[in-house]
Amino acid sequence: MGRRIALALVPLLLAACAERDVWPVERLDPKTAVNVTLMAQPWVYARPLPMLAANARDYLNVGVVETNRTGERAYWLGVVSWSTIDRTQLPAGAGLAQPIHLRLAWKDGNLDLTPAPGGRAAVGLTAPALTEPAERYTDAWYSLSAANLKRLSTAAPDSVSLVDDDDGLRTYEAWAIDPAVMAEFRKATGLDHP
Question: Across-strand partners of 144?
Fold first, then answer.
């Protein structure tokens, strides 16, 4: 009888562990004293670059972050640019894309964002966030309004584009998106309650 109960509990325990894998990460920045809640894992977007190498891609990690400065909450979108390509032997200017103006695209519309001056420091972060598995990366941070946050909560963008000053686009398509990550972020931050 005891063995049956133990076997019946195994699926429940596994489900609880799986849910914790997408539970947001909370940390207190040791230098700024800002409490930060990060999506458990970022949404990952990829841009193939076959002219440089077979299976070579540039990536964007995109994630929502809540900051809490003594009760004052703010929401940010972090965008981390990284690559599987070793660019040390490439000519100058062939480095990682610097996230600048951003266009998030869904089938029914776009959301354009401008980076916050001050980058990660504007958010209150002194340590990198959303950077794994990258060793070399560049990042940018975008302030989110309530409407922006609501849009991101409904579904991850289908694509993300970096928009340069001449309106040129570098478009990255969805690569690894887990919808449960945003659902758990909403629960942990109380955004799932109106």
Answer: 75
User: Other C-beta atoms within 10 Å of 115: how many?
Assistant: 19
194, part of any domain = no
Task: Scan for tokens 């409407």, then name that residue.
Answer: 147
Looking at the chain, how many residues does it have? 194
Kindly calculate the radius of gyration of the chain based on its CA atoms and give it in whole angstroms.
19
Q: How many CA within 13 A on the CB side of residue 86?
A: 2
Task: Tell me the pLDDT band of 69, cut-offs 50, 70 and 90.
Answer: very high
Its pTM surpasses 0.90: no
Q: Over the chain, what is the mean pLDDT?
A: 87
| Residue 75 belongs to domain spanning | 2-189
Taking the alpha carbons of 25, 103, 119, 47 in that order, is the dihedral positive or negative? positive
Vertex 108, ends 46 and 100: CA angle to 5°?
45
> Is 157 inside a domain boundary?
yes
